[in-house]
Amino acid sequence: MIAVLDRGQAPPVETSDILSRVSASRLNCFLTCRLRFYFRYVLKLIKPSTGPLFVGRAVHNALKRWSKARWLGQPHDAETLKPAFLTDWILSQQEEPVEWEQDEEDKQQGKAWDLVDMYLRDTPIPAGEKPEAVEVSVEADLPGLPRLVGIIDLVRPGGRIVDFKTSAATPQAAQAIHRNETQLTAYGLLYREATGDDTSGFELHHLIKTKQPKLVVTDVGALTEERETKFLRLVESYVDGVEREDFVPSPGLHCASCEFFAECTLWKGGGA
To answer: What is the pTM of this model?
Structure first.
């Protein structure tokens, strides 16, 4: 084990839950930095949300409303969705406070809505297309490994999975696919468990937070045996690391946006 804070030894690790279930977000956190994983999922430290994270969630929630409205055959234009967006913006901060810089909230709220408005105009999804599924929670057994859990944003007809992303810069296709491969593979396995069929493919819909917002759609092929094998190997590594309580930091560029940077600097490399 590790000693991370000035109060001496770290508390005992409770690993039953994190060894019984795994999600793509939990797996990606562990693979990026095991100490960050420890703070978030073992110690369960709670941190105020940052502005960029909150904007991403606000956009995601608005697009969830849009998808559900289409699924239910309800109005889903910008005029209908904006009042709900503004209400959600307020209510979400009651549950998850945000540390805004001075005069920053109104600016970020405007940027978030501009992204949603842009997507409603530029989406490649036909207006009359009814989703196959929206924000569906699914679980799947993995052979000899923790149970896989996840929520799929949107499934288009024919089993085509869409995942929404917000980004400050335009992604290159190859890098976007590589960065999101773990998550998309998890979705493919979950879809197979839920339907008995393989997904026909994936789409990454990146909403870019440039001065003039834009949409970049990256097409990703169907789930392959190679991707599935890689995913299972990653989960095996996750199980091995958690069982050994191998929660060490991984310094890098991602540290600049890590909510646990202060706690990480107190880590001394010792054992409990």
So the answer is: 0.90
